[in-house]
Amino acid sequence: MFINYQQAKRAVNHFYTKWQSFLHEKRYSAHGTRVKYMFYKEHKSNILLVSFPACAPNTAKYNYMRTLLPFKCNKLFLLDDFGENHQGCYFVEDSVEKSVTDLLNAKIAWCEQSLCGGQKSQLKVIFIGSSKGGYSALNFSFLIPNVHVVIGAPQYYLGSYLDKPSTHCNLRFIVKEVTEDKKERLNIRLKNRIKGSETMPNKVYFHYSNVEHTYQEHVKDMIADLKERGVQIVEDVHTYPDHGGLKDFYPPFLVKTINKIINE
Q: How many CB atoms within 10 Å of residue 226?
C-alpha cells in the first residue's frame, strides 16, 4: 500500500503522542471532575505554551506535541475526553471549566516561581488550538489574564453546531437537558464572555480560510465581536476549500507566530 508523506507524518505524530501519554499523562481533580493533561517543565523559561485539543474521529487526543517539540519551554497539553463518545465538551461544562481554570492558574504560578524572583511580568503565556481547541483557547483567554492566543478556524455557535446525531451526546453533557433555550444560551456563551469579561487577551493571532464553511457559519461573527470589543487581532487568511485544510496550514502558522511572540 502506498503511503504518502502526510500520512506517514500523521502516523509518526500519533505514535509519538501515544507514547508520551503513557509516560507523562496526569490527572487533575477538582470541582467533582478530573482533567487529563501533560506538563513539561523547563526551569527558568519565561514561556508557557498551552495546547487545547481539537476533535479527533472516535477518540480524544492531545494536539501539536511534535509541532511544539522544537520549543524548549514550559508546555501544558490538555485532553478533552468528556462525553459518552469521549470527543469532548470544549471545556465549557461548568465543573470542567472551573477545573481547567484552576489547573491553568496552578501551572502559570509554577512557571512564575521557576523564574528568578518569581516575576509575573517576565512570563509569556501562549494559548493555542485549532477548531474545537481554538474555541477553548479563546474562551480561557477571557478568564486568564495576560495571554497571547494563536488559533485556527474555531466554531462559535456551539448549541447549533453540536445539535446533530454524531455530537448530540456532547451537547447533552454540556447542557444536561437539551432545550431550545439552553442551545441558544450555549450559542451566545462565548459571545457574552467576549463582550462582558474584564479580562482580555493581549493579542489574538487568527488563522482561517475564508472559503470553507466555518468562516461564514462561525469565524466571521467571532472576528467582528472581537474587534468590537477592542481585542487586537492579526489575521492569517487562506483559501483552502474545507475545514480539513487546517491540518496542513495551521501548524506552520503556529510555529511562525510562536517564534514571533517569543522574540518580541
A: 19
CA dist 244 and 58 (Å) reads: 16
Instruction: Residue 147: give its domain's CATH number.
Output: 3.40.50.1820
For the chain, the straight-line distance linking the first and the last C-alpha, in angstroms and rounded, comes to 46
Inside any domain, residue 2 = no
**Residue closest to 238 by CA, chosen among 165, 133, 152, 164:** 152
Q: What is the pLDDT of residues 174-184, one digit of tens each?
A: 999 999 999 99
Estimate the crossing angle of helix 189-196 against helix 132-141, to 10 degrees: 30
Q: If residue 196 lies in a helix (H) or strand (E), which one and from where to where?
A: helix 189-196
3-state helix, strand, coil in the chain (%, to 5): 45, 20, 35
pLDDT digits (tens, 9 = 90+) for 55-76: 877 788 999 999 999 999 999 9
> Cα(202)–Cα(205) distance, rounded to whole angstroms?
10
CB within 8 Å of 89: residues ≥ 6 apart = 80, 82, 83, 96, 170, 173, 174
Phi, psi (degrees; rounded to nearest 5) at 147: -120, 155
* 3-class secondary-structure state, position 40: strand
- pTM over 0.90? The answer is yes
Chain Cα centroid distance, residue 15? 21
| Domain extent at residue 158 | 28-259
CA distance 212 to 242: 5
Cα separation, 69 vs 237, in Å, equals 25
